[in-house]
Amino acid sequence: MMKYLDNDIIELGGDLQVAITYKNLLAKIATYIYVTTANETSTCAWCTYFDEIEEAFGLEPGWIDEEIAEDIQDTLNTYFTEFIAEIEIIYNRGENHEEVDRYFDVTLYTNYCVGILQDDCSVEYSL
User: Fold this and answer.
1) What is the CATH number of the domain that holds 82?
2) Handedness of CA 105, 111, 113, 117 (dihedral sign)
3) Partner of 30 for a Cys bridge, out of 35, 36, 75, 109, CB 3.0 to 4.6 A?
4) For residue range 81-94, what is the model confidence (pLDDT) as tens digits?
5) What is the 3-state secondary structure (H, E, C) of the chain?
6) 94 domain-assigned
7) pLDDT, tens digit, for every residue of 12-52?
8) 90-127 pLDDT tens trace
9) What integer is the mean pLDDT of 68-88?
């Protein structure tokens, strides 16, 4: 059974104090991950931590669990599949099942990394 349905309403806290459907929230989170990766990477790969996403969207700490992470990954694959070379969900648990690391490790094709020009096959070099 799914944790949330597409049209379930998710309340966002923090300074936002708004609500959004689960499907639209997934799209916004996927876009946040893609844009952050494209703008910040200098190696085609970037890690976006779950707590960073939760804070940016006014979600409770720990809101993104393994099931929601998979929904976010599916949404990234739906909307950004042509740009993303690889997505890995890291969800490690420490001793006593305390979470140690929770993040998305996203690798983009060089054409879609804003800061990469050298060795980018979309750039034509003339000497």
Assistant:
1) 3.30.1370
2) positive
3) 75
4) 999 999 999 998 77
5) CCCCCCCCEEEECCCCCEEEEHHHHHHHHHHHHHHHHHHHCCCCEEEEEHHHHHHHCCCCCCCCCHHHHHHHHHHHHHHHCCCEEEEEEEEEECHHHCEEEEEEEEEECHHHCCCCCCCCCCCCCCC
6) yes
7) 987 767 999 999 999 999 999 999 999 999 899 999 999 99
8) 998 777 767 679 999 999 998 898 877 666 556 565 55
9) 97
Contacts of residue 18, defined as CB under 8 A and 6 or more positions apart, other chains included, come to 11, 12
Say how far residue 21 (Cα) sits from the centre of its chain.
17
What's the CA gap between 16 and 11, in Å, rounded?
9
Instruction: Scan for tokens 């890995």, then name that residue.
Output: 88
The total number of structural domains that make up the chain: 1
Which domain range does residue 53 map to? 9-112
Give a yes or no: residue 56 inside a domain: yes
Is 127 a member of any domain? no
